[in-house]
Amino acid sequence: MPDTTSDMTPTTAASTVLSASGIVTLDPGAAAAPSAPTVMALLDRYFTAINARDYPTWASSVDPKRAQHQPLSSWLQAYRSTNDQAVEVSAITPSGGDAVTVELSFTSTQDIADAPSDLQVGRICWRSAWPVVDLSSGGRINSPPSGTTTKSAC
Questions:
Q1: Does 12 fall in a domain?
Q2: CB-side exposure of 141: number of CA atoms within 13 Å?
Q3: 1 DSSP 8-state letter
Q4: Which domain holds residue 75?
């Protein structure tokens, strides 16, 4: 019987990388970055923690100062109905030292009462550029610089 496995895998599937949870995908250019496996594992851990309401895992995924500014009680309030999905990383760019900038988009659904005050909808599409530091230690997400995050109803 002839080997048909190469005919069964579409080119797009082979060039897009999916995380273990299925939440995060890396576009081909992002998947080619040397830090791609670390970034994917970090984002997978971060978004899975939000969806599972797992504060300790979330806190270990972000810069300690960021976690300190959002303690457990306020974090649980902020994310109590949030479900993030369809995280797509379009670029991973070195930003010096042990850090990269990750360009990503994702969709969040939440109760309208839990949506941001300036966009009271149940489904939001986000785009941002996240600084990721400490790559050699598994990575941590810093707060995005002002003006690098956009959101819209979708």
A1: no
A2: 24
A3: -
A4: 18-153
**For residues 81 and 154, what is the distance between their CA atoms, to the nearest angstrom?**
17
Per-residue pLDDT of the chain (154 residues), as tens digits, is 333 333 322 334 445 676 777 899 999 999 999 999 999 999 999 999 999 999 999 999 999 999 999 999 999 999 999 999 999 999 999 999 999 999 999 999 999 999 999 999 999 999 999 999 999 999 999 999 999 999 999 9
Q: Is residue 2 part of a domain?
A: no
Q: Is residue 57 part of a domain?
A: yes
CA 113 to centroid of chain Cα atoms: 23
The domain total for the chain is 1
SS3 100: strand
SS3 11: helix
107 in a domain, yes or no?
yes
Enter the tokens of residue 135.
């790559």
Helix, strand, or coil (residue 98): coil
Cβ-in-10-Å burial (0-12, 13-18, 19+) of 102 comes to: buried
Secondary structure element (H or E) that encloses residue 7, with its range: helix 5-8
